[in-house]
Amino acid sequence: xxxxxxxxxxxxxxxxTNAFAEQEHPLVPAGFVEKKAAIEVVLTEKGEFAHANRFxxxxxxxxxxxxxxxxxxxxxxxxxxxxxxxxxxxxxxADENAYFDAYFRALDDWCNAPDAPRTLRLLRDYLAKRQLxxxxxxxxxxxxxxxxxxxxxLFTVQGIGxxxxxxxxxxxxxxxxxxxxxxxxxxxxxxxxxGKELLEMATHPKFQGNAKLIxxxxxxxxxxxxxxxxxxxxxxxxxxxxxxxxHNALGWLLKRQGFDRYGMKxxxxxxxxCVLQSPASGAALNPLSEGGGxxxxxxxxGKALASASAGLSKRIAEFNPEAADAVVILxxxxxxxxxxxxxxxxxxxxxxxxxRLVRWYESCKWEIWRTFGKGADQKSVLCISxxxxxxxxxxxxxxxxxxxxxxxxxxxxxATKLVRQxxxxxxxxxxxxxxxxxxxxxxxxxxxxxxxxxxxxxxNWQEFEWRRTLAVACALVRREQVDQGNKEVANVILxxxxxxxxxxxxxxLALADMAEYNAMDKNxxxxxxxxxxxxxxxxxxxxxxxxxxxxxxxxxxxxxxRSEWYKMLIEQVKELFCExxxxxxxxxxxxxLYGYYCQRKALxxxxxxxxxxxxxxxxxx
Length: 621
Description:
The chain has 621 residues and is of the alpha+beta class. The protein is 44% helix and 14% strand. The strands form 6 sheets. Strands 2, 3, 5, 6 and 7 form a 5-stranded mixed sheet that branches. A 4-stranded antiparallel sheet has the order 12-13-14-15, with helices on both faces.
């Protein structure tokens, strides 16, 4: 029950703040629930029907009075106290309407309370006439009995007490209902969450759709509890107070700062109430600034990361100084349509949470194209960045798999399951600081080594997608090296002293690639032989390099004098091989991608610098 204790603690820490008054995602008070209404029925100040209207296709969400039995209803009619589905509130929906009978009894009981507002009694008196549907039709309301059967109805009374308005939003109605909640009768038992004798709760609310986090399906059979218990209360007992606070707090946190995609829900929160982005979204820390200061080196990125982490630590510690700064990470998944399971849970001090995020962001980074701004201000920047979970999924599983999962709103495709499992494994590495599973960087390296597989449906090569996968693969290999305790992990700057066999062969591949690219007719651009042979080069580097070198000879002729420079660089790289390493024909490690990327980047940088010097010289003359 640790997760419920933390949710109750969070609710109690923020209930004295402006959480209930937030415009976009308000915290729902105990005794209330947020529902999406489709129809609004307006009554006059005399309690007569005025008109009805729809809220639109998607409806609007409102906070209404609630009872736990209604939130968890699955079978017999169990009404909400004030607003409910049309079949509950319309007495003329059917000749024998058990739904309306149950609703009207509850409403009448509330109206008989001493503090029941006059507007509530006006509504009761009108609904007692059982003519709601008839009045709606007579007013010209576009009504479909079958489609609107489960449409949620909201009630408004005009001009009472100088304010009128929707009943569910009136202060006197809410106060009256809250008094009934506090005076609620029932059996008391030991609450396993709060450790006190409190009002027990048998039916817990649905969390999303029909799925419940806490459920007991008792069918009264002999082996219902496998002989361990005689009834559900012997297994666990959760009070009304704890259940409502925990469910409302969790729903509020998930809407405000949670990640809900691919059939998985992940939310991270500070028990003090500080807003934290879910680590599953890839935005738990944001070292990248949109003010123009994009980190172009590892050193700049480290400074930006230190600044972002210091700011996050300060917000967690200072947001609510009187509350503990514990951070909780909770992951959920719907096991069936009626059950919601918790498949991940961690809690730790706020400073430890930030430190683990920093370790992930610091160890897994590379040069990646990022898009900033919107509309006319949108621009793409190549900067040092940590790949997001979606970047990693695209590199490991393929962009088509990610696209299929993103479009699977029913969460039924195998692609969705693959993406969800991968993201959960990345989440564990990020939060728990565990080593990255070996298959993740290995799969990314395999895909980055097969550039010819990056084609669209028309067969056109997607070079940008491949180079993005190459960058993500480098970041993942870098993280793997950190996990292995390698102190000399690669940088995007070419290391001309690195004598690692795989790194050097990667440099040779880049030199062959750039030599052919520079000799190629730019109007007839195509994949170079180095790119075409990249997959087999990774497995048999010596044999493939000899073949690539022979294929380079015609291009050396086209390059003229510049070919001597490439030949010189190739010989310099070959001289760096340790004795016997060059002759080995065994597969290369993932670090060969480092050598390819850094050597190619160095050649491009040198070319841009040379062209810039020529331009400057011409200007001076």
